[in-house]
Amino acid sequence: MTERFTGSFTQQDPIPEAGIAAALAVLRHGRLHRYNTAPDELSETALLEQEFAATVGAKYCLAVASGGYAMGTALRALGVGPGDRVLSNAFTLAPVPGAIASVGATPVFVGVTEGLTIDLDDLAAKLDQARVLLLSHMRGHICDMDRLMAMCDAAGVQVVEDCAHTMGAAWHGVPSGRHGVIGCYSCQTYKHVNSGEGGFLVTDDPHLAAKSVMLSGSYMLFERHLAAPPPEAFADLKYTTPNISGRMDNLRAAILRPQVADLATQCARWNERYYALEAGLRNTPGLHIVERHEKETIVGSSIQFLLLDWAADRVVEVIDRCKARGVELKWFGAPEPVAFTSRYDSWRYAPSAPMAASDRILAGVVDMRVPLTFSLEDCALIARIIRSEVSAVYQLTAVAE
Question: What CATH number does domain 17-261 carry, 1.10.3210.10, 1.10.260.40, 3.40.640.10, 1.10.3300.10?
Answer without folding.
Answer: 3.40.640.10
